Amino acid sequence: MSWGAALQLALRALWRNKIRAALTALGVIIGVASVIAMVAIGAGAQQRIAETLENLGTNTLVIRPGTVARGGVRTGAGGQTSLTREDAIAIADLRDVVAVAPSVRSSAQIRYRGTNWGTSVEGVTPAHVDVRSWPLAAGAFITESHVVGAAHVCVLGQTVARELFGLASPLGETLVVKGTACKVIGVLEEKGATAWGTDQDDAVFMPITTVQRKLEGITHIHRIEIATSGRDASFRVLKDITQLLRSRHRLSGDDADDFRSYNRAELAKSSEESARVFSWLLGSIASVSLLVGGIGIMNIMLVSVTERTREIGIRMALGARRRDILWQFLLEALLLSTAGGVLGILVGLGGALAVARFSELPVSITTGSVLIAFLFAGLVGVFFGLHPARKAAQLRPIEALRYE
Amino acid sequence: MSSPVIEVSELHKTYALDGVDVHALRGIDLTVQAGEFVAIMGPSGSGKSTLMNILGCLDIPDRGRYILQGRDVTELDPDQLAELRNREIGFVFQNFNLLPRTSALENVETPLIYAGMGRAERRRRATEALQRMGLGDRLASQPSQLSGGQQQRVAIARALVTRPALVLADEPTGNLDTATSGDIMTTLGALHRDAGVTILLITHEHDIAAHAQRTLVVRDGELLEEHA
Lengths: 404, 228
Known about the structure:
The complex is a heterodimer. By secondary structure, chain A is α+β, with helices and mostly antiparallel strands. Chain A folds into 2 domains: 3-52 and 270-402, no CATH class; 99-228, no CATH class. In chain A, 57% of the residues lie in helices and 18% in strands. The model of chain A has no long low-confidence stretch (mean pLDDT 87). Chain B has helices spanning 48-55, 78-88, 104-114, 119-132, 148-160, 178-195, 206-209; strands spanning 4-17, 20-33, 37-41, 63-68, 71-72, 89-92, 166-170, 199-203, 214-219, 222-225. In chain B, a hairpin with a 2-residue loop joins strand 1 (4-17) and strand 2 (20-33). The model of chain B has no long low-confidence stretch (mean pLDDT 92). The chains are: A alpha+beta, B alpha/beta.
């Protein structure tokens, strides 16, 4: 039997039971649509998390001094003065390290003409821009020569700029930071709050040497941020840094580390892991409805084979081979499932777009997920159609002909 | 003219009915030549239906030889049997066995579909066969829209459309009134006489069997030549 004839036969059989075929396909439509919509929502959530992490700088490691315990009083992390800029320079030579940004943190009441604003002051190097992926809105950032010369310059975060200058441009103006006059050379773009609610824009950046010498009078540093070439590399780089710092700080085998390290990749990994679990969960719940749709197909096809036993007998008497009968019923199941698949994709896309339009949930539709859902629907047709079709094909002609 | 269409020797068939073995055929010998019109008679339970199923390649014998158009049927698998039925046998059943909710034309086309024939050629041959049966104006009618006699004519057209070596008519008038029965038998007789179609007729009515050239009787699983 030719494919065209077989297809025509299957279409006609379905057309004869339009309502039944439509209801059976509806099961698949709902299944496929929910898979598409759920996967789109899951992928959207994953993408949003990835964006958030990107903003945070996922390939960054942070090294801070360790605690000091003296006479039972422990200062907490950052109490030690062991970390230096030389450490940062040594770290820069490690493999897979892209940028190293040492920094010193201080806080100050900043005065500009009649007003003032209390904010945090960070002593940084030019690498800060790369590590934090934080572009400038206007002006320029601190340069290497500013650092070498402990220049009296500063770059403002958006919040500080707004509080002190309002809508006017702060570029070229002079601020007073703890009695030190500083020329504003740049303003950073708005970065927003961290995931923990700290306003990142409420800060002033100055050359690290300026903060060390003029503001704090220290030689150590408060933190080193390190950008690595990739998330996977971060884990290895962290190990190398630990080794390097232990040897630089002359720590012997038993001594505890005099610094602490934080790996943002770790955080990224766990957040993304939970996002992935979330979208898998959504996808599997939706798959259950596709499975139910498939069982609906099997059910209807079994009923159909029983109802049409005599027809099968007649066809066999007229010369239908077993594979002709098999294909006839399998094609019917496949048509139901693929028609359900196509309509389900449309409904699912519509649903996902509606969710995107009317709610805060982001959605992400990929051709991959659409193709997989369609393929899956086809597989459901084959899987659940095969048993009834085989049952039909294996009928014995004389028994099928005699069936009432 | 005298090449045998059917050569059967020592055919045996036993089947289990409610756990009891029924020895339905006990050594049947039969030869049907091309162009013959043979009637097989017998009361119900005589093994008539079993013989008909085997001759129609719908079932296979336990023992014995059955050569149809030179091919040993007992050695064929179900798909080869299907092809043989498609090419060599045209069935006419007591209850017509037309496909429901399917037009007369499509019913007649069905065996040609399984023969792998193209659509246009199928249409042409099916239309021609129905016209020969006087149903040229009922091509689009479904079985439920046709009388019993018309339905049986559609079935005859379907049986002939593949130009089979043998038409197997199993009680073709069993569901028809006397007048229509006469029509159908006249039609079969004409096919035999004018077109040289080989017909094997199974019936339990003497006046129906009388249309054939030769009548055989099945009794207790054995076949006897009836000498009228």
